[in-house]
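Hi V.,

Quick status before I head out on leave. The structure for the redesign project is tokenized and pasted below; the design run finished overnight.
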């Protein structure tokens, strides 16, 4: 598969400079309009963004964007446009996780549950985090890894209302994967995470933090929460 056939994703979090909140209402609203205009040009440039609010939920994070594009160049250009437009000039990048969508080694035909965030209606919450496995994991035979992942997948299927997406970050970012979950039920998601903690696959986990939580909102809703609309 060539690079031209790829879909790249980015989980991008942005934090507002506290000094911006002390600007006049007129200045904040003008910044919000300019930022929104830059955001809405993304689709025309090949970048699709889904917006989430983390206002007051995550330190240093007010906006969480799940972004998809055919190239890393498009992600870069779109982010640059956002950061130089209105409110964007007051934003800092808190986290950026880059990945590439590719076929799973362990699931021959992914279900709708395992294709979240690419089509369909959005759930209320997004949980996203970087993930890295141990060297010992990769040194096991393919058969051994498949057996362990079969248990992991089975547990996930016990929670059919929780959808997920997985992107590969090998050679692109510090983590090996970007993992994202969508759900309308945070209690059920907590139960899923706890159940996965007791599976054999947990032994191979090196890191899976920070875990970022966002509430699905339109950009206009987020700007209103921030005082920019």
């Amino acid at each position: 598969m060539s690079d031209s056939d790829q879909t790249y994703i980015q989980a991008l979090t942005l934090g507002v400079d506290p000094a911006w909140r002390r600007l006049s209402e007129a200045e904040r609203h003008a910044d919000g309009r300019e930022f929104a205009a830059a955001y809405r040009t993304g689709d025309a440039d090949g970048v699709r963004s889904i917006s989430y609010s983390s206002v007051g939920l995550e330190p240093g994070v007010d906006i969480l964007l799940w972004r998809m594009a055919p190239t890393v160049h498009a992600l870069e250009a779109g982010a640059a446009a956002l950061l130089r437009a209105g409110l964007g000039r007051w934003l800092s990048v808190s986290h950026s996780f880059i990945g590439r969508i590719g076929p799973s080694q362990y699931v021959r035909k992914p279900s709708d549950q395992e294709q979240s965030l690419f089509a369909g209606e959005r759930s209320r919450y997004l949980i996203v985090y970087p993930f890295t496995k141990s060297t010992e994991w990769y040194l096991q035979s393919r058969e051994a890894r498949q057996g362990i992942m079969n248990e992991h997948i089975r547990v996930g299927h016990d929670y059919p209302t929780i959808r997920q997406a997985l992107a590969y970050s090998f050679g692109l970012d510090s983590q090996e994967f970007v993992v994202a979950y969508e759900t309308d039920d945070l209690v059920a998601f907590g139960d899923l995470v706890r159940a996965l903690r007791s599976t054999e696959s947990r032994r191979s986990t090196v890191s899976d933090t920070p875990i970022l939580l966002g509430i699905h909102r339109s950009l206009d809703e987020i700007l209103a929460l921030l005082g920019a609309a």
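Above is the designed sequence. Residues 113-214 form a domain with the Alpha-Beta Plaits fold (CATH 3.30.70.1030).

G. will cover questions while I'm gone.

Best,
W.
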